[in-house]
């Protein structure tokens, strides 16, 4: 129970203020406990960062799977996933991925490897759903297009320091990705989704 409380508080602080700037002292103070209590569960800050990120990834995996499974419309599902990430990281000043890559490269590598396998599965499944629904062209190679989109999204997060800039670029990347695959029916649905956001 205490371990989960530490992870939840650490997640809140790390995402809001950054992995580097938050210390074990800061976390202990926020939780009104001693550093000794923190070290009882986590031997050092690096282990706490890694466990916190694992917790975040587990939550992301569960929620994205749910969004894409429950949403019948492949294009709407894409926009809901983008909105989910925007809401999840709205308190972040700087990109969490950028921070990890810069300050905790070994943890970043583990995160990256997991994201590669999970995200590509989601992207391929959603593209194939869109093809069946007539939103995406039947002749496209879902694996290739999933790889293209993956490279776009993760390059944005690796190279963009500020979260607000990353979110804006991710939205443009999503529009670019869908336009590249869409049928006329898909373009109509894309324009509908964009109009809903602007309204």
CATH superfamily: Tetracycline Repressor, domain 2
Radius of gyration: 19 Å
From N to C, what is the helix and strand string? HHHHHHHHHH
What fold name goes in the CATH topology slot? Tetracycline Repressor, domain 2
Tell me the structural class.
mainly alpha
The major β-sheet equals:
none
C-alpha geometry:
elongated
Number of DSSP helices?
10
Count structural domains: 1
CATH class: Mainly Alpha
% residues in beta strands: under 5%
What is the strand tally?
A: 0
- For the termini, the CA-CA separation is 43 Å
- CATH-scheme architecture: Orthogonal Bundle
Helix content: over 70%
Low-confidence spans: pLDDT under 50, at least 5 residues?
Answer: none
Mean model confidence by pLDDT? 91
Which helices and strands occur, and which strands form pairs?
Layout: H1 2-17, H2 24-31, H3 35-41, H4 45-70, H5 74-88, H6 96-103, H7 105-133, H8 142-159, H9 163-181, H10 184-198
Q: How does this structure look, described?
A:
- With 199 residues, this protein is an all-alpha fold.
- It has a single domain, classed as Tetracycline Repressor, domain 2 (Orthogonal Bundle), CATH 1.10.357.10.
- 81% of the residues lie in helices and 0% in strands.
- The protein contains 10 helices and no strands.
- Helix 5 packs antiparallel against helix 7 (105-133), helix 5 (74-88) runs antiparallel to helix 9 and helix 8 packs antiparallel against helix 9 (163-181).
- The radius of gyration is 19 Å and the shape is elongated.
């Amino acid at each position: 129970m205490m371990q989960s409380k530490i992870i939840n508080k650490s997640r809140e602080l790390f995402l809001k203020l950054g992995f580097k700037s938050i210390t074990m002292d800061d976390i202990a103070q926020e939780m009104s406990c001693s550093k000794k209590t923190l070290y009882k569960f986590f031997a050092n800050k690096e282990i706490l960062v890694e466990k916190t990120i694992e917790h975040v990834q587990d939550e992301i995996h569960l929620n994205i799977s749910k969004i894409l499974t429950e949403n019948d419309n492949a294009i709407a599902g894409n926009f809901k996933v983008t909105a989910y990430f925007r809401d999840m990281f709205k308190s972040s000043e700087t990109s969490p991925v950028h921070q990890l890559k810069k300050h905790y490269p070994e943890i970043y590598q583990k995160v990256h490897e997991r994201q590669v396998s999970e995200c590509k599965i989601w992207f391929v499944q959603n593209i194939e759903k869109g093809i069946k629904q007539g939103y995406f062209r039947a002749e496209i190679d879902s694996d290739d297009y999933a790889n293209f989109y993956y490279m776009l999204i993760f390059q944005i997060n690796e190279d963009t320091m500020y979260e607000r800039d990353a979110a804006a670029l991710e939205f443009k990347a999503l529009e670019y990705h869908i336009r590249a695959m869409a049928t006329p029916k898909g373009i109509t649905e894309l324009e509908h989704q964009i109009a809903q956001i602007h309204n």
